[in-house]
From TrEMBL:
Residues 237-281, 401-423 are annotated as: Disordered. The keyword Protein transport does not apply. Residues 317-412 form the Histidine kinase/HSP90-like ATPase domain. Residues 5-178 form the DUF5931 domain. InterPro entries: DUF5931, HATPase_C_sf, HATPase_dom, Sensor_HK_TwoCompSys, Sig_transdc_His_kin_sub3_dim/P. It comes from Streptomyces beihaiensis. PANTHER family: NITRATE/NITRITE SENSOR PROTEIN NARX-RELATED, OXYGEN SENSOR HISTIDINE KINASE NREB. Residues 267-280 have a biased composition (Low complexity). Residues 189-223 form the Signal transduction histidine kinase subgroup 3 dimerisation and phosphoacceptor domain. Keywords: Kinase, Membrane, Transferase, Transmembrane, Transmembrane helix, Two-component regulatory system. This is DUF5931 domain-containing protein. The chain crosses the membrane at residues 21-39, 45-64, 76-94, 126-144, 150-170.
Length: 423
């Protein structure tokens, strides 16, 4: 069953909204306490009482609006800022001398919460507009632009604009991260599809091309066309432009078109393995030995533990498919007479499968060249599978001394983003 990637979106600004809710509650309590402590100094305390009678229910009733950016509309922000500015302008009306000489206003520092809401919602430009309106209200309330008034106004402006700018940067980073995660998920899905194509469609095309060439006549033309389609499909899977299809006149009839990396013809061994894997789809775990056993033959020796090697069914199927891809490479590059050995080891924290052959080995730089030409047997069918399983695939080859592929899969899946990378 195909595994679907899920992109998890985050909200970097949500903690700011929660902090703003707490700030509004605390500053509301502070404004009440500040007014109560100076109650006797007000010439018209009933003005302050009336204002606080509006401020308190307004703050409590609008907590849902400041719990997130969706409900915090521009209409609400305008009304909220109006409440703050009204409190500033009513402060001298309440008859408190300090409200004019530089003391706190009726809403006190609650006003900053209204400005911060504008900053979080709309960024630094909205913050600059709201803080400018509050600054004008402070100058009107005190009747002149004193040093202390200018200091307070500039402080609020700079702080709100800075917070608004940080919010904009955080949102841009969030969008970039979400896009990167989407690209990563799409890339992983592309690699998975490339492995499936390599293990099925390309094998069939290679078989048709080979059989058609052997039969000759009209079958040779069919084989030639299958070879061309295989080359085009490999190029497409590798991410490059598809080559131009050749016309019948480009090659003489019966000319053999050699596939770029034609996999071995599917045989009873590979088919039995796929059947065994299909039987394991309904279980949570699977004995890996049952999936590797069909690979044993006169040219393939399998060594395994005497007890079950249990892995999650999906993991076992992918690991067995990687072993099959390694054996395909042995048949394809080492020849039909080459011998291969499969060693299955059940370690405490991981399962280790080693595939070794007595072929001629791989020349240095050949794998990189093959991957560049769209030959994805090692890059996708082996290393790609192991990377998705959180494991590693190490290939050791010395010219003239054969090739060894070591597949290591942890029994516990690695956390997303920490999966092992092929070495």
């Amino acid at each position: 069953m195909a595994r679907r990637e899920r992109v998890i979106r985050m909200s970097v600004e949500q903690p700011l909204w929660r902090a703003l809710m707490a700030y509004r509650l605390l500053t509301m309590v502070y404004a009440i306490g500040l007014f109560a402590s100076a109650y006797e100094q007000y010439g018209r305390p009933w003005v302050g009482v009336a204002y606080l009678a509006v401020l308190v229910p307004w703050t409590l009733a609008t907590l849902p609006q400041v719990s997130g950016g969706v409900r915090c509309t521009k209409r609400f922000l305008t009304a909220d800022l109006t409440v703050a500015v009204a409190g500033i302008l009513l402060s001298p009306v309440a008859g408190h001398e300090r409200a004019i000489t530089g003391g706190s206003t009726l809403p006190s520092i609650w006003t900053a919460g209204a400005v911060l809401a504008w900053a979080i919602k709309g960024g630094w430009r909205w913050a600059a507009t709201a803080s400018a309106l509050v600054g004008v209200a402070n100058v009107i309330q005190r009747g002149a632009l004193s040093r202390s008034t200018a200091h307070n106004v500039i402080l609020v402006c700079i702080a709100s604009i800075a917070i608004g700018y940080v919010v904009e940067v955080a949102r841009a980073s969030e969008r970039t991260l979400a896009r990167a995660l989407e690209i990563q998920a799409a890339t992983r899905e592309r690699e998975r599809l490339a492995r499936d194509i390599h293990d099925s469609v390309l094998q069939v095309l290679a078989m048709v091309q080979r059989r058609g060439t052997a039969l000759g006549g009209e079958a040779a033309e069919l084989g030639r066309m299958a070879g061309e389609q295989e080359i085009a499909l490999r190029t497409l899977v590798a991410g490059g432009p598809a080559p131009r299809p050749r016309t019948p006149g480009d090659d003489a009839p019966g000319t053999r078109v050699r596939p770029v990396d034609g996999p071995a013809e599917p045989d009873a061994t590979g088919g039995a393995t796929r059947d065994a894997a299909a039987d394991a789809t309904g279980d949570d775990t699977c004995d890996l030995r049952t999936l590797l056993a069909p690979y044993a033959s006169g040219h393939v020796t399998l060594s395994e533990p005497g007890t079950a090697v249990s892995l999650p069914a999906a993991t076992a199927r992918e690991l067995a498919a990687a072993v099959g891809a390694a054996l395909d490479n042995v048949r394809r590059h080492a020849g039909a007479g080459a011998h291969a050995w499969i060693l299955l080891e059940d370690e405490p924290d991981a399962v280790l499968v080693t595939v070794r052959d007595d072929g001629p080995g791989i020349p240095e730089g050949r794998l990189a060249q093959a991957e560049g030409e769209g030959r994805l047997g090692v890059a996708q069918s082996i290393r790609g599978r192991l990377r998705d399983l959180g494991g590693t695939a190490e290939l050791i080859s010395v010219p003239g001394q054969g090739t060894e592929v070591e597949l290591n899969v942890p029994k516990q899946p690695a956390p997303r983003g920490k999966a092992g990378q092929p070495r």
